[in-house]
Design brief:
Elements: E1 9-12, H1 22-29, H2 35-43, E2 48-49, E3 65-68, H3 87-95, E4 97-100, E5 104-109, H4 125-132, E6 140-141, E7 150-156, H5 159-170, E8 175-183, E9 190-194, E10 197-199, E11 209-211, E12 219-227, E13 231-238, H6 245-253, H7 268-272, E14 280-288, E15 295-299, H8 304-313
Parallel strand pairs: 7-14
Antiparallel strand pairs: 1-3, 2-3, 4-5, 5-7, 6-7, 8-13, 8-14, 9-12, 10-11, 12-13, 14-15
Length: 330
């Protein structure tokens, strides 16, 4: 039988809940309800904040009153209600924990997994993590990675921790380094790119972000690790955190990220080497612990699928001496 809540509920936002997005608030209030259903409730105006409509991205303030409508959840096992975490994904997420204490969680996100579920993605990383870790009363993303990007991802286990992580990111006190394979041979060892980025929400999916003088400031530093005749392995360090920043800046250099069919083009040579995904990996995070202030440095080595691509490319040129090793658990 469907689980039916017969009455409207009114919830006053307490100080510890302040600052969170209403879609994430509702996911915790209405456990088991799919994100797609949450978005429908917001879109239709069935959820109200202080009597007004709210977009999914609206952040709540202490003292506001959220109207939660009576709901009939989909029966367990129905298409909408079924979002169990596949066993392989659950194992991969547990194995991918790089750092954890009572306040902070850093894990190695797999490529192909969106950080959030939505209308086209039933199960994202945050939803999967909440299901396999019921011991966590609160866990939320401190930042995001593209669906096809793998590597270091920070999550806060307390609302106060999350606010401090956001402050560090906003003040550029979190160092993020990525490993990427670029198409073509990049001749300059050190390539800083200082080019503003403009996001175009109505643009075709293939070109959502572009370099534009009217865009927001964005800076990426590329440093060559290894070179081949038709590809270059680089470390990319972000000084800002714009949407698709590394991918668009790499294209701006004339060397798009390998496997990037949105901002680059299909490369048969790299596909022959076994590349079937975006070669972009968040390899290192360095920050101060949001509670203790202690310096933390976390690294996620390339997985075997990416290191095998590098092996297929053969010996690198003599001016690229870096050695990249796969994770020990692969």
């Amino acid at each position: 039988m469907p689980d039916t809540a017969s009455r409207v509920r009114y919830h006053q936002v307490d100080p510890d809940e302040a600052g969170q997005r209403i879609d994430n608030f509702l996911l915790r209030q209405l456990k088991g309800l799919p994100r797609s259903r949450i978005y429908r409730l917001l879109r239709k105006g069935e959820v109200r904040v202080d009597g007004g409509r709210a977009k999914p991205t609206r952040r709540l303030a202490a003292g506001e009153v959220v109207r939660i409508p009576p709901l009939q959840r989909a029966p367990q096992g129905s298409a909408e209600g079924s979002s169990e975490v596949p066993r392989a994904l659950a194992q991969r997420l547990r194995r991918g924990i790089l750092y954890e204490d009572e306040r902070l969680l850093i894990l190695d996100k797999p490529s192909g997994l969106a950080v959030h579920g939505g209308s086209t993605v039933r199960l994202g990383l945050i939803e999967a993590l909440r299901k396999i870790r019921p011991d966590l009363p609160f866990v939320e993303l401190a930042h995001r990675l593209d669906q096809e990007t793998s590597g270091c991802l920070m999550l806060g286990k307390r609302r106060s921790t999350l606010r401090r992580l956001h402050a560090q990111i906003r003040d550029h006190r979190v160092e993020k380094r990525y490993t990427a394979l670029l198409q073509g041979r990049l001749e300059t060892d050190h390539c800083p790119v200082d080019a503003p980025l403009l996001r175009l929400p109505g643009a075709p999916r293939e070109r959502q972000v572009r370099v534009d003088p009217d865009g927001r400031p964005a800076r990426t530093e590329f440093r060559v690790l290894q070179r081949w005749e038709e590809a270059t392995l680089v470390e990319a360090r972000l000084e800002t955190g714009r949407t698709h920043q590394i991918r668009v800046h790499a294209r701006h250099l004339g060397h798009p990220v390998a496997g990037d069919e949105r901002y680059g083009e299909r490369c048969e040579m790299l596909r022959d080497a076994g590349l079937r995904r975006l070669f972009l990996h968040a390899s290192k995070l360095q920050l101060n612990h949001p509670e203790t202030g202690e310096s933390i440095s976390v690294e996620a080595p390339l997985d075997e699928t990416l290191t095998s691509v590098l092996e297929h490319l053969g010996p690198a040129a003599q001016d690229g001496p870096a050695v990249v090793r796969p994770r020990e658990d692969d």
